[in-house]
Design a protein that fits this description.
The protein is of the alpha+beta class. Helix content is about 35%, strand content about 20%. The chain folds into 3 domains: about 240 residues, no CATH class; about 110 residues, 2-Layer Sandwich (Alpha-Beta Plaits), CATH 3.30.70.2960; about 90 residues, GMP Synthetase, Chain A, domain 3 (2-Layer Sandwich), CATH 3.30.300. Helix 13 links the parallel strand 12 and strand 13.
């Protein structure tokens, strides 16, 4: 039985989405026109470059509690730049969670903004604004106003004292950097991405494509997990070092891949008993997309291949691409049949790790992966304790544990059902018609049932 196999990249964490995301679209209505200046960001980038070049010294092991922390170097550099600070006792507390107010304060240090003054001030508007921000602490109020005007946060869902989630921070950084959301195409670099709202997923993919975030062990975003002080330091350093390559600045004509295509087809003309008709490469030394066309004769020939047969063939193919281009080249591979149906997808992000996905993943495998998944809303958290797909009736039974019931319970359950249905439709090529939800409290006492008809 085929399964989803993801060996996700190690290193910097990946953030993920909660259904109650606290960040607004920059295109939403704005009260004030705000002009962003790049000089502050460029100043920090220049200082960072000077630091890396040895022109500015960095005191290593600056804090007592970061010697064994994976991001100690990032913490030291960001503290030396004045973007982050430690505590009076000489510690940094890298694993301490960051509040939403602290997150906004850190983000706003990276950009200087000015609010144009009208010739005639609108006193009524000022009074309305003060009323909106009355629950925001005074020390962060100005930064929160600016972040709201810039479309980085939605004040209605900004809770200054609550923990900032990985998703919230990732989306906020993407909007601060003016990254355009990326449309979903092909394989996701994380398993729980199928349950993420499309718009927020677009910002996360933008951060991923810019190499500002990568994966976690296990292959999930873990959207509701908090962001820590040390993780913030790592992200900011990656922004300042500008290590990623802008593919738009590279002349693709300098990279003629025709000869490599021919050589690969000569060497890899079969996957066991399945003939390979064509291999097409598009890209350059930094990133290349590979399409492999196969002629499986009938479904049985492809089905007879083991997972290891396919993976070993693709890995050998990718290694030969590395020999010709670079070991750091990002390589994505699609295997298609004569009808252009995608049978297999593969991604190798340079030397960091791989992601593999079969197109005939079983519904039971996906159900197992979705167990223990958490959905977070404003005040409530739902956890999938069990999920079963009935292939005879094409319905899904889900047991949910909830921390509390509020007036929006049915709306929240509808959102959960929509995301679950989408996951099975995309990942397992299933066609669920009904979803039955059984809601329990934290003591396993039944609270309510809910039915959802899938559109």
């Amino acid at each position: 039985m085929k399964r989803i196999l993801i060996i996700i990249m190690t290193g910097l964490f990946v953030m993920s989405l909660s259904a109650g995301a606290a960040w607004a679209n920059p295109g939403n209505a704005q009260k004030h026109k705000v002009k962003k200046k790049v000089n502050v960001m460029q100043m920090y980038k220049a200082q960072y470059k000077a630091m890396v070049d040895g022109k500015i010294s960095v005191k290593s092991n600056k804090f007592k509690d970061t010697a064994n922390y994976f991001g100690a170097s990032s913490v030291d550099k960001m503290a030396s730049l004045g973007l982050l600070a430690g505590y009076a006792d000489g510690t940094f507390k890298p694993n301490k969670n960051v509040t939403q107010a602290e997150m906004v304060a850190i983000l706003m240090r990276l950009v200087e903004v000015t609010e144009p003054k009208d010739d005639i001030e609108d006193e009524d508007e000022d009074e309305d604004e003060d009323e909106e921000f009355k629950k925001v602490p005074g020390w962060i109020k100005n930064q929160a106003k600016l972040a709201t005007d810039m479309g980085i946060i939605n004040l209605n869902r900004f809770h200054s004292a609550e923990q900032a989630s990985r998703l919230q921070t990732c989306v906020a950084f993407a909007k601060l950097l003016d990254l355009d959301p990326v449309d979903l195409e092909g394989v996701l670099p994380f398993k729980d991405g199928l349950l993420i709202d499309k718009e927020d997923l677009g910002y996360i993919l933008a951060m991923y494509n810019e190499e500002l975030i990568s994966g976690m062990p296990g292959g999930n975003f873990n959207p509701n997990h908090p962001i820590t002080r040390g993780q913030m330091a790592v992200i900011i350093e990656r922004i300042l070092e500008e290590h990623h390559v802008d593919l738009d600045t590279i002349d693709d004509e300098e990279f003629d891949l025709t000869d490599l295509e021919s050589d690969l087809l000569d060497e890899y003309d079969e996957i066991e008993d399945v003939s390979v008709d064509n291999i097409t490469l598009v890209g350059n030394e930094d990133e290349v997309e590979v399409e492999v066309e196969v002629d499986p004769f009938d479904d049985d020939d492809w089905a007879d291949l083991s997972e290891s047969d396919i993976e070993d063939w693709v890995k050998d193919l990718v290694n030969d691409i590395y020999k010709e281009l670079s070991k750091n080249t990002k390589v994505s591979v699609k295997i298609l049949n004569n009808n252009d149906d995608v049978l297999f997808e593969f991604r190798k992000n340079g030397s960091e790790g791989i992601l593999v996905r079969y197109m005939d993943d079983d519904v039971d495998d996906l159900a197992n992966e979705l167990e223990d998944y958490e959905f977070s809303f404003d005040n409530d958290e739902f956890i999938i304790t069990s999920i079963v797909y009935n292939e005879v009736e094409d319905d899904i039974e889900v047991n949910l544990e909830v921390s509390d019931l509020d007036s929006n319970i049915e709306d929240n359950l509808s959102i959960i059902c929509e995301k679950i249905a989408g996951a099975f439709q995309y990942a397992a090529d299933a066609d669920p018609e009904m979803i039955y939800i059984y809601v329990y409290d934290e003591d396993s006492d039944w609270l309510m049932n809910f039915q959802y008809e899938v559109e």
